[in-house]
Every structure is written in structure tokens, then in C-alpha cells.
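Handoff note, outgoing to incoming analyst
You'll be picking up this chain. Sequence as last confirmed:
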Amino acid sequence: MRIRTSAGTVLAGLLAGFVAWGGTSAAEEPRPNVVLLISDDQGWPDYGFMGHPHIQTPHLDRLAAEGLTFPRGYVPTSLCRPSLASIITGYYPHQHRLVGNDPPPPPDLVGRPMGEVRRDPRYLEIRNRFIQHIDRVPTLPRLLGELGYLSHQSGKWWEGHYSRGGFTHGMTHGDRTRGGRHGDDGLSIGRQGMEPIFDFIDDAVSQEKPFFVWYAPFLPHTPHNPPERLLNRYREVAPSLGVARYWAMCEWFDETCGELLEFLDERQLASDTIVLFVCDNGWNEPVDPSDRLSGGIGGPGAKRSPYDLGLRTPVMIRWPGQIEPRVDAETLVNSIDLAPTILAAVGQEPAPEMQGLNLLAPELLETREAVFGDVYEHDVQDLDDPLASLRYRWVVRGEYKLILPNPPRVPDGEVALFHVIEDPHEEHNLADDKPELVSELTRLIDEWLPVPGS
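Most recent structure output, in case you need it:
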């Protein structure tokens, strides 16, 4: 049976952790600033500190060296909108119900070009109803705002105007009649400079307010159009020009993170700021462009899939003077842990529905039996019933991962069991060889998220 942890236990765990680090409670010190760095469509091996032989990520490498790094991190789902919603709420997709990127169109618009569909007033009304799910769940900006934080949104943001998520400042207007869908004006961050974030931080400091920064740039996401100076670094070592472009995009993202980290140093804010890193979902750039899947989602087995190339991500937390730098190569973590971790660190109690753990309380992480997730259709099948779109449920416990297809959505899917330590690219299905383990992990999944008829 999975051990559930109450919000009060999470907060108590953090306070115990402060004693272990020689720190003081958040109530006795000014609350820290929070900066959340979110990569977009990047495979888990594609960082210098994760061992990639060619991709250069010196600024994220530095962050990994200066903070607490979990190489075995996961997001619950491998598609950006539901993944980002889980990061900002601490809820699983089936809890916040924003399980896909786009809601279903009216029946008579099915089969029409999506550009036409997305401009239809009836579709806009459906979209607005779908966005309302963000109104009924807690978000980090709302909860931090109760403590006096100012918050800034930039980059990817699907839920309408930035204020819809509780941000006090931001870049995304969310107006579909003006091209709003998944970030609009916010998608210029990083690719066209970092000034909006820098101006926000300076403003927050001038007001003597703690701040929260959501930096979710459209990087290394397609279009893969890196600066030539970076592309030239990889032309001769990559197996194809397409792969070279993707590798250069990863370095470009790293450069922008470096700019933000250096700005904190220049303003002497680093010691008062928690910096966290996660990726929204993975990526697999095919060597042969003909192997690219439809919809611009890269090669197979990554984005929108239940495999580690789509779900796994390093997770990092840097808090100078409070967290001892180290790599925790064994502990399994989930992006739903980020919200309760941040809230506990600033002295705010997480919502009871948050099932994540405080990553700064080792005694709590020791109670974790497994991490879970659920993968859905790209287009939502029912606005209010997340299970109508469910494709897969999965669990990782120890060295093994089990993937269970949902027959109504994946009728030909097979149960898959992988030893993800010895077989990190999940090439050898062990389900037939270990039926007892399959049954045991299936029971865990069913206890976590029951599905009718499973």
C-alpha cells in the first residue's frame, strides 16, 4: 500500500530538515524568492550533467553542482499542457482535468482544418469552458500571493490570460481572436531576450516584495532554428543536420537560463532565491526526418508516449545556505512534488489534494514506494471526464516500470514491464517473464487510479 502524506506532515518534515541543515524556519526569516525553470521538449539524457557526450549545458551543469539534483525525476504525463498544469497546481492530470492540449470541436467541425476550427465562435466557447478547470484548483501564484508574493508568467501558458492562473504580472494575453493558444506574446521570452523577467524582478525588489518567476520558454521546442554560432558547434558531431539543430537548441535554452542565473548573481539575490528546474516532457529527435511523427512531435517513444523518453526529467533545486549540494541518484521524484516543496519552503501549507512530497524533507522521501502517471489523448474527448481520454497508466517502483494501456483508447496496446536501470531506453519487455511482478505493480496502479473495467 502506498503511504500517503498529509500536508501537515510535509510542513513538519521541512521544519525538521531546517534543523538538520542548521537553518531557521521560514517564519523567522524573510521568505525566499522562487524561480522555476521549465524546459520544453527535451529528452532526459540531453544535458551535460546527465552525461550527453556532445550537448553543452554549462549553466544547468552549474545549477546541478550547486543544488540538490534528482536524475530520476518524472512528469506524470508526456504532453505540455497537462504537464504544465500539474507543475503549477501539484495535481495529477486526472485531478485538474486539463488532460489534453485542445478540447473537442463541435461535431460538424470535425475534419475541418484546425486553423478554421480554432476561429469558430462555437469552438472558442468550448475552449473557454475547458479553461475554467484552472479556476477551481489552487495554483502556485495564487497560494504565494496570499503571502504577499508578486509573480511573473513568461513562455508556455495555455490557460488564457496570465491572471487566470493567479499571476500578478505576465506576458500571455490568451485571446484566441489575436492568436492566443499556448503562450502567444509570452513565447518570445528567451528567443528574443530576457528583459521582461529582469524588469519584473527589479520592480519586485523596489517594492520589497518576494517574487515568483515562471520561466517556461519555447525552448528547445520546435521550430529548431538556433543561432548559427551554436549550430556550427554541432554540425560535424551530430548524425544529421536535424539532430544538430536540436542539440543547438538545447544549448540555446541553457544560455537563457544562464542569463537569468547571472542576473540573480548581479543583483545579489541568489542567496535569497530558490531555483528549481524541470522539463515539461521529453523529446526524441530522429536522425532521418522521414521518421518524424505527425503533428511535429519528433520521433517515436517520447512526447505523448508512456516511455521514459517522454516522461523522465532531471529535477533540481538550489537554495544556497539551506540545501547541501548533492546528487540523489536513487530517489524517484515527480513534478507534482514541486508545488508542495515550494509551499513548504515559504511557510504555506499545501492543499490537501496535493499528493506530492516535499523534496527537501529526506525522511518523507524515504516513505515513497513508487511514482505514478497517466497519459491522455492530445485532443480531449470529454471536458469533464478525464478518463474518457486516458491512454495509459504507469508506475515506476525501484528499478522496474510498468505501463498499462487503457483498452478503450489503445485497443491493441500491450502491457509492458521494463528494467529501466539496465534497459534505460525500454527496448526489452519483461512482462511475460515476470508475471508476478506485473500483477503486483498493476495492483499499485489500480489503487492509485482505478479505472472502470480494469
